[in-house]
Amino acid sequence: MSDPVTDAPPADELLSPELLDFLACRTPDAWIDWALENPELLLIDHAQCEKKAASTAMSLLYRYVDQPLLLTKMSQLAREELLHFEQVVKLMEARGIAYRHISASRYAEGLRRHVRPGEPARLVDILIIGAFIEARSCERFARLIPHLDPELAKFYRTLVKSEGRHYEDYLMLARHLPPAPIESRIAFFADREAELVQSPDQAFRFHSGVPA
């Protein structure tokens, strides 16, 4: 990734104060350096993350057919995530990067292992986790933008807006369900998410921790 965007605004200026407060920590600089050392893996795993995000939305559509607001939001989200997947694959093709399967990071599973059984607690936790995944994605896009070439920086800037909206939708849906309030669960997952982001990982992924 050459020709970085030197006049890009600082990451915090691209993100809402609410989103920054939602996350318990910022992405460590060591991860940013790791990402810039692995531009192909960054895009390959980014494409994989978009595909998984669409799959998650579709699974919620199938499981929770009695939730009209969730059905509407997840339908919109699935379409948007698939569009992002197509855009990333097209960008990779233009750069001579072959899309291939790579193993998932421990990030999402590290959060989902704490999901409570039984409804509506299970759905509340899944939605909170969705909000954290989208918020962290948004924060990492914003952190990367100043270091990227103009084409990729422009694309990631559009994703900051959409992923920020997805974070808001997931959180709104979680707050819409009983039992309320959900602040204690948000705080619990904020701590778990920060642990995953700041702890060592052997392999670079879009949601990995720092290099081991």
Output the keywords:
tRNA-(Ms[2]io[6]A)-hydroxylase; Ferritin; 68% helix; mainly alpha; 212 residues
Secondary structure layout plus pairing:
Elements lengths: L10 H4 L2 H6 L6 H9 L1 H25 L4 H27 L12 H6 L8 H24 L5 H27 L6 H16 L1 E2 L8 E2 L1
Parallel strand pairs: 1-2
Helix pairs in contact: 4-5, 5-8, 7-8, 7-9
Summarize the structure.
This protein is an all-alpha fold and 212 residues long.
Please give a structural write-up:
This protein is mostly helical and 212 residues long. The protein has helices at 11-14, 17-22, 29-37, 39-63, 68-94, 107-112, 121-144, 150-176, 183-198, and strands spanning 200-201, 210-211. It has one domain (11-23, 30-211): Up-down Bundle (Ferritin). Helices cover 68% and strands 2% of the residues. Helix 5 packs antiparallel against helix 8 and helix 7 runs antiparallel to helix 8 (150-176). The protein is globular and about 45 Å long.
